[in-house]
Design a protein that fits this description.
By secondary structure, the chain is an alpha+beta fold. 34% of the residues lie in helices and 25% in strands. Strands 1, 2, 3, 4 and 5 form a five-stranded mixed beta sheet that branches. The N terminus is likely disordered.
Length: 153
Amino acid sequence: MRFLVVALFFFISTNTLVAQEEVEIIEITEDKIPENIPFAIIEKVPVYPGCTGDDNGVLKQCMSENVSAFVNQNFNIKKAAKGLLPGTYKVFVSFKVDTKGKVTNIRSRAPTKKIEKEAIKVMKKLPRMIPGQQKGKNVGVLYSLPITFKLAK
């Protein structure tokens, strides 16, 4: 029994070491600023119209809330879910707020093409924002948004 426990521990620890995921490390120096920076680590986040303040945390929260509210108001569930069975559906959307504040590089991953197209259509309607900044320079900011909706019977 003790041998089995030791063997199991060895197997788990070996697999944990081998199964490490690759993590991209973004190094930001004075002379080298990446073109695109994730929303989570940007020095100064893009500012959604109507959001105010100097605190980056408050601006992040405001942006997240406004983007979510915009999607809730504009996502046409009936159109996207036509012909689908009742259940819960998830859509993963990513986009970039470019150096001019425009939403670009919109990508969507969903169970059906109809849902993907509807998510992209909604993201294209997002308003222009004040661009994010890193070291005082405008940079592209990568943003991801999960959308979940439930279809009733």
